[in-house]
Amino acid sequence: MFYIRKDSEWAHSEINRYLSIMVLDLRMRIPFKPVRHNDFGYEYTLTPEFTAWLREKNGRIERRFREEGFGSSFTQYQRALDVADRTEREAVIEETRIRAEVMEDMVGALEYALKYADVSRSPREIVTYVNKALLTRYYEAQARRKGMRRVTVDGRRRMIAPFYEGAIRTILGVNSTEDYVYRRVSSKQADFLRELIGIVETDMAAGDCAAYHVLPDGEYRLSRKYAAEKTGLSYTTVKMRLLRIRKLITERVA
């Protein structure tokens, strides 16, 4: 919410300056309580209800500005209000989305914690376990939403951010260009690779990477089982084809 509003901070400051003009110079009554005020200015929180009221009174506000010689100020006020209003609508939408995600992940984490709580323990021990399990599971769920994956590194499980190094490397685990690969393999093998490359590139563009393995360093690797499901071939056929292709690519040319 803070970052959404950050780029429009100037608009909120400008609007409060004009609201101060309305109260102090134009002697208009604003039916909302200011956060703070003094003899030189007023500061309000721009809630959706407040901005809706300002829109409703727009004609009256413009008339008062022009009557008192603040016509150019009204134009600037309108510009600032448009920016602030749009930003607040975006912020409310984002807040609703985030709250829904938080509640979904928190409920799931709580259900997990309660499922495995040992009720034969003391109330204090149960609460300690539930708190720890709840937070652990919740932060894992939040990390997964950000695209992070759990991997084992040096015998320890941790969450890392996966990365994509291109279709050929994701499929075969080698650094090579498509042109070089196609020169080394048969036409049937090339067609098979083109199909897999299309699958990988489509998935990565869509961010649909749940079916891919993640190596300890975070690199994506195509699952042979997933490749078999997508191509309609058997797991063994996919595995052996990729082994043969990899061998052709990596063996030294005589």
Any overview of this molecule?
It is a single chain. The chain is mainly alpha-helical. 65% of the residues lie in helices and 8% in strands. The protein has helices at residues 2-6, 9-24, 48-56, 58-67, 71-115, 123-145, 167-172, 178-184, 187-206, 224-231, 235-250, and strands at 36-38, 41-43, 149-153, 156-160, 213-214, 220-221. A two-stranded antiparallel ribbon has the order 1-2. The mean pLDDT is 88.
Classify the oligomer: single chain
For the biggest β-sheet, the strand order reads: 1-2
- The helix-strand sequence is HHEEHHHHEEHHHEEHH
Averaged pLDDT, please? 88
Beta-strand fraction estimate: 5-15%
Shape: elongated
Low-confidence segments, given as residue ranges, are none
- Helical run tally: 11
Structural class, please?
Answer: mainly alpha
Radius of gyration: 30 Å
Helical content class: 55-70%
Largest sheet: 2 strands, antiparallel
> What is the total tally of β strands?
6
Instruction: Calculate the terminal CA-CA distance, rounded to whole Å.
Output: 61 Å
Q: How many separate domains?
A: 3
